């Protein structure tokens, strides 16, 4: 009786050939289940029923694999396009959808947020964000910088949310509560509400910046009818004595003030 031949150790048989997309999809499932640290090429090969060495024909190492998985997830980002809606509403929707994606794959996103090349120019999120800022009236030359700041704030908050720091910080009590008060109570002040507060702050800052620009404060020129004592210059940046009558258009203090954002009222 002829015995069935055993498959040599370290080899597998697959019905379909390996592809980079298939490898990344399987890796994402493992990351969602066990985290980035637990992912190994050997575990991935076992999940794919493939020879571990065959993976290296498609991805050179784990770092490249994680980059491919992050790009795949980033390309899947979708948001509702509301071109007729106010830009403020579009910013809220865009950031909220991005947060939803982060919570869908928290293990991967926590890792990806720490990578400087996570967001690429062609990513749907970046494309949508820059389009919203353009619709808001941000000068074309300033869009990359403001978009980068929005990303930094939103991603920073989501990192703190995913690792639990945001919840802990929001429940810290002040060292010396105000007289007659027991300190803040954060009952009902959950992470959803805190994220909305972040978006309120971002939008208010953009609105203030756009208002100042439209008043004539762009390109180092002082705002129209602002005067020297407009109250918008932080106290620590004001000159020791304000001599409005004698100031020339090229006064360095005026130029400094023109580049400052209005204080939050």
UniProtKB/TrEMBL annotation:
InterPro entries associated with the record: Homeodomain-like_sf, HTH-type_TetR-like_transc_reg, HTH_TetR, Tet_transcr_reg_TetR, Tet_transcr_reg_TetR-rel_C_sf
Transcription regulation recorded as keyword: yes
DNA bind region: 40-59
Coiled-coil residue windows: none
Domain HTH tetR-type residue range list: 17-77
Region Disordered, annotated ranges: 213-265
Record-level Gene Ontology MF annotations: DNA-binding transcription factor activity; transcription cis-regulatory region binding
Protein name: TetR-family transcriptional regulator
Organism, scientific name: Streptomyces avermitilis (strain ATCC 31267 / DSM 46492 / JCM 5070 / NBRC 14893 / NCIMB 12804 / NRRL 8165 / MA-4680)
Lineage: Bacteria, Bacillati, Actinomycetota, Actinomycetes, Kitasatosporales
């Amino acid at each position: 009786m002829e015995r069935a031949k055993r498959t040599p150790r370290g080899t597998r048989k697959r019905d379909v050939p390996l592809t980079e997309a298939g490898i990344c999809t399987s890796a994402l499932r493992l990351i969602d289940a066990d985290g980035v640290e637990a992912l190994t090429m050997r575990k991935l090969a076992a999940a794919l029923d493939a020879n571990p060495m065959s993976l290296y024909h498609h991805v050179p190492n784990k770092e490249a694999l994680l980059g491919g998985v992050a790009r795949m997830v980033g390309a899947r980002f979708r948001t509702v396009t509301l071109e007729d809606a106010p830009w403020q509403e579009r910013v809220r929707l865009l950031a909220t959808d991005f947060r939803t994606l982060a919570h869908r794959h928290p293990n991967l996103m926590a890792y990806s947020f720490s990578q400087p090349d996570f967001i690429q120019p062609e990513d749907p999120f970046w494309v949508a964000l820059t389009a919203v800022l353009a619709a808001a009236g941000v000068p074309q030359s300033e869009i990359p910088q403001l978009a980068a700041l929005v990303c930094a704030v939103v991603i920073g908050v989501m990192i703190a949310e995913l690792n639990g720091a945001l919840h802990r910080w929001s429940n810290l009590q002040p060292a010396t509560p105000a007289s007659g008060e027991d300190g803040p109570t954060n009952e009902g002040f959950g992470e959803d509400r805190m994220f909305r507060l972040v978006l309120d702050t971002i939008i208010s800052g953009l609105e203030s910046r756009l208002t100042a620009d439209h008043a004539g404060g762009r390109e180092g020129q002082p705002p129209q009818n602002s005067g020297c004592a407009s109250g918008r210059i932080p106290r620590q940046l004001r000159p020791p004595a304000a001599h409005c009558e004698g100031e020339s258009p090229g006064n360095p203090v005026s130029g400094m003030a023109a580049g400052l954002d209005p204080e939050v009222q």
